[in-house]
Amino acid sequence: MALFPTGPVQQVSGTAIAVPGEDIDTDRIIPARFLKCVSFDALGDQVFADDRLELSGEHPFDQARYQGASILVVNGNFGCGSSREHAPQALMRWGIRAVVGVSFAEIFYGNCLALGIPCATATPEQIKAIQAQVDREPGSSWSLDLAGLQLTSAKSSWPVSIDPGPLDMLRSGRWDATSQLLDHGPQVAELMQTLPYINQFASK
Amino acid sequence: MSSGTLYDKVWDLHRVAELPGGSTQLFVGLHLIHEVTSPQAFSALKDKGLTVRCPERTVATVDHIVPTTSQQRPFADPLAEEMLSTLERNCQEHSIPLNNIGSGRQGIVHVIAPELGLTQPGMTVACGDSHTSTHGAFGAIAFGIGTSQVRDVLASQSLAMNKLKVRRIQVNGLLAEGVSAKDLILHVIRHLGVKGGVGYAYEFAGSAIEALSMEERMTLCNMAIEGGARCGYVNPDQVTFEYLKGRPHAPEGDAWSRAVAWWSSLATDPDATVDDEVVFDAAAIPPTVTWGITPGQGLGIDETVPSLDQLDPGERPIAEEAYRYMDLQPGTAIAGVHVDVCFIGSCTNGRLSDLRAAADVARGRQVAEGIKAFVVPGSEQVAKAAEAEGLDAVFRAAGFEWREPGCSMCLAMNPDRLEGRQISASSSNRNFKGRQGSASGRTLLMSPAMVAAAAVNGRVTDVRTLISPSAS
Ligand code: SF4
Q: Is B35 in contact with B194 (CB distance < 8 Å)?
């Protein structure tokens, strides 16, 4: 499996996998019983566990033709519900490095960004067409280009969007916010002086 | 753009810096942690050689994995035991106060922080848990975060955020008898949709909101996230201050009046502008129950499961999925749907007033034959207060089990779970497929009083038929 993202993310290439459906929540991406862990390491095998059980082998994540895929194509409000980072972690550990969809729930989007996984959007019609193509031609190569904002296969190319802020963070490699936040340690200390609740509203 | 709202004021007060990439570094006034989303954050901290910046602004509890029958250590489930002992070790290593089992202060994170007076108006509150929106009930800006962000907050007491827009949910009039804050929020989500709030903070306002108790406001804000809004809030007022006064972490003496003055100054200005506003009439809201697999699939108690042509095209695919999964067909009346399990609890409806409302229905009645019904108080304090009033006895006499505090069957990470295709009446907040521990289990969300009504009749019931208007 490709290494987890580090540094600038300019492009994600590989085969694609489509999981159709609106409002796919993080309980479905990784059911709660798998949250009983103190590390994320084992989550890759458990991604979509209950949906896969329900479809007994027919779920895209179980089909041989989609194994090794790195671009996931989804529909609207993907990742809604619980804030569990276990969801993008499970997808990432299965092999997903980029998600393309109609829309994403906010916390999920932020969690992906914090892992260096771009979430790109396209219109419902475009996503439908992309999903159909992924279905017809599993194993064909796709590439999500962050500079040109295009999702491209040998046969077609689709414009996608990523908000300017996250896009810049991904492309510059600053998607891992910790060091930036730590740089402003003194400003944090200053700000704390101005907030009356920090000192239990002691008179100045 | 909104201006002069509580959201704007609190945001500005907590802004540390603008970050490259357009997000803002926001100071976190209160960081709550629990056993599920913190262990990996502590590991990441260690990997990076970092430490906890403000342990005194961090508070821990254990809630998701705790068993509710026996809380004897070590837990019967070794994985649950490992999660709690990891939390204990991390808290000890970093001097973070842990409200552990038996401390008298343990409970669901969104129940204990308010009852300890930790959550206060004007704060930013973050927790690795999406229902952190609950704390907005106090006029705080409170939001759920992922584990990477938990690491960031531990390390820097701040995080990178993008500012939200503000939508005012104006609810005029008063809720009818037998209609609760839970019905109100299910109604709002039904009408605005589960993604309607994405990109927004919801400001709940209007006479119906002002009339709500703090516990009801918490129920309301708790489920803002189910409508897609990462945070929801109510402007602080006298109700807020009265609730806070005398709580363990509330300011006292002279500081109290300074606090009230500061809190009051943060409320949304009368001439503030918001990005959007939606108006509801409280009196028109019925007891509401979900029939499907998202919290937006709600029905008034007198309604029937909608057919596809009654729905917007965008809602049809998920409705079709819900017909199949729930085994409920269009045209089926929601009242009368048979249930197997009745669960009263969770951070939405596991507080004292919720248990009182359910006990009022259960008192002198019996859980129907073959129904499993249980009550899980939201915290040790709630349990103690309820027991002091004899609510546990009311529930037990009616055939409910009375359990120890925790998240329990809200997400079934402990032994409390549905089996197979069982269908539950639940006072929790999510009816997602598989949410309550069985991959094919089904959930009907409703108020705690409605759950009690379902328990005694064995089927979904309009609670108003069981309470006399004159009753307490
Ligand atoms: S009660 Fe349910 S929703 Fe609330 S914190 Fe616990 S698991 Fe999450």
A: no
What is the average pLDDT across A79-86?
94
Q: Is pLDDT of B241 > 60? A: yes
pLDDT at position B472 is: 44
The fold for domain B165-239+262-284 equals Aconitase; Domain 2 (3.40.1060)
What stretches of B200-334 adopt beta strand conformation (E)? Answer: 200-205, 231-234, 276-281, 288-290, 298-300
**What pLDDT was estimated at residue B469?**
62
Take residue B23 and report the two structure tokens written for it.
Answer: 């997000």
In a mutagenesis test of the B interface, which of A38, A40, A51, A102 is the best target, namely the one with the most B β-carbons within 10 Å?
A38
Query: What pLDDT band is residue B37 in, cutting at 50, 70 and 90?
Result: very high
- Beta-carbon count within 10 A of B216 CB: 24
Give the model's confidence band at B272: pLDDT under 50 very low, under 70 low, under 90 confident, else very high: very high
pLDDT at site B444: 98
Q: Is the pLDDT of residue A174 over 90?
A: no
Alpha helices, DSSP H only, in B338-402?
346-349, 352-362, 380-388, 391-398
Nearest CB neighbour to B430, from listed A81, A111, A185? A81
- Could you state, in order of their start, the residue ranges of all structural domains in chain B? 6-161, 165-239+262-284, 288-465
Residue A149 included in any domain: yes
**Domain tally for chain A?**
1
Pairing of strands B124-127, B276-281: unpaired
Assign domain B288-465 to its CATH architecture. Answer: 2-Layer Sandwich (3.30)
Residue recorded with tokens 């999964």: B325
**How much is the pTM?**
0.95
A70 is in which domain, residue-wise?
11-199
Cα separation of B153 and B147, whole Å?
A: 10
Q: How far, in whole angstroms, is CA B330 from its chain's centroid?
A: 30
Please check whether residue A2 lies inside any domain of the structure.
Answer: no
* Cα(B217)–Cα(B208) distance, integer angstroms: 10
Interface A–B counts its CB contacts (< 8 A) at 213
Encoded tokens for B168: 């005012």
Q: Do domains B6-161 and B288-465 have the same CATH topology?
A: yes
Picking from B14, B17, B48, the nearest residue to A184 by CB comes out as B17
Look at B413 and A33 and tell me if their CB atoms are within 8 Å. Answer: yes
- Into which CATH architecture does domain B6-161 fall? 2-Layer Sandwich (3.30)
Do the domain assignments include residue A6? no
* Cβ-defined contact of A38 to B151 (cutoff 8 Å): no
CA–centroid distance, B243 to ligand 1, in Å, is 23
Q: Which residues pair with A72 in a beta bridge?
A: A17, A99
